[in-house]
Automatic annotation (TrEMBL):
The keyword ATP-binding does not apply. Belongs to the PhyH family. The lineage of its organism: Eukaryota, Fungi, Dikarya, Ascomycota, Pezizomycotina. One of its GO terms (molecular function) is dioxygenase activity. Keywords: Dioxygenase, Iron, Metal-binding, Oxidoreductase. Its cofactor is Fe cation. This is Phytanoyl-CoA dioxygenase family protein. InterPro entries: Phytyl_CoA_dOase-like.
Amino acid sequence: MTTSGLTTEQLTSFHQNGYLIIRNALHPSTVTSLLNETNSLLTNFPLADHPLTRFSTGEKTDHVGDEYFLTSGDKIRFFFEEDAFDSAGNLTKPKEKAVNKIGHGLHTQSAPFAHLIDGPALRQAGEVSPADVARSLGYKDPRCLQSMVICKQPEIGGAVPPHQDSTFLYTDPPSATGFWYALEDATLENGCLSFLPGSHRWAAVEKRLVRKEGGVGTEMVDNTGRRFLGEAGVRGDVDGEYVPGEVKAGDLVLIHGNLLHKSERNTSLKGRIIYTFHIIEAEGTEYDGRNWLQPPEGGFTKLYS
């Protein structure tokens, strides 16, 4: 573990591959605290007034085109697995076993999750500080703009097709980086992430998820802005071999916003709870007013005070 940013070797690996696994980034006690918070949120949210919004990272976007999703950036909201419903629209699992994700403002609305962007507290605890990592990556004014728990529920946890985070969190030029924490072991059996190494250097951000005209609903549109951070380098094969990233609880995965990555269905009886947040660069980039996620009053959360 490093508590002062990334080493030269880690930076080289990240720039070459587009992702980096940092082992034991969190203490077991922190992982336990985050899991306890997650279980409390899953158990205690009211179902009676919930719109039963479903979530998928695929091409279908109508299901996220509602007020509940579009206004979730500074709130804690719950989104269900597509396969958690029967043909009549009724849940087939207890609610705590049917949620796909909790998002998108955990980093401001939940003290245990806010801890993970508290640089001084993390350094004092000997845990990896995202602020220090961001400095290592060259960020001038990094902002945390969304956070979420992804549950990948036993037996019904859906596959996530190959995608780039910059499609959903676009700046011009692209600047997103994901911090992905395993709160439970993520394995081939329960749907760990897989990466197409180096694809961040040749896979352009060709599409963007934006709000439809009038601000109601979302749609995928062609990206007419810059598609890379800097110049595109070597060309690669979009059908190339993905590398699985099996991790243990407490490990951190850094993911470049342009990197192609995916995960398979969880058909096992073992869950796979993770926590992830994303940062963008606020200095020298443009954040489009059409992006599905718009900044709350006061703006996105600064990593540097």
